[in-house]
# Entry
Amino acid sequence: MRKNRIHIVSLLVMVLCTRCGIYSFSGASIPPEAKTVSVQYFPNQAQLINPTLSNDFTTALRDAIMNQTSLDMVESGGDLAFEGEITDYNTSPVAITAGQTAALNRLTITVNVRFVNLYDDSKNFETKFTHYEDYPSDQDLNSVQESLTGTIIEALVEDVFNKALVNW
# Structure
């Protein structure tokens, strides 16, 4: 009987903490007064242009925030606000073999993110996030691009989300 009470009290404390904005099960730590978030479109300003990259990254960031927080998405001026641009999208050879040819190529994406938290200025930042994926040099970038960019975007979004909303 005593164990049941402890479990019930523990469950109530967890529910109350998540409801008042102190903590969420995703790990997000959001000020309780914050109710809205805005994510502006991230234009691609890299020299090499992937025509879907801006939309894919912006959508992935919005989806992650909507799926992992209880904030309402607004067009602009959210209590928490994200904006920025894609600054680099390139492929380069790595793992050079003895014959001076690349065994692997690397696709790298860099995103510059500005984050504003209206309720806690100490959380505001402007940071560049970079991730890459390697692929065999005998494969054409066009044949692996969609898969690689999806994996890189997922990692970038996780890093942005964690820096902005997770206080570990």
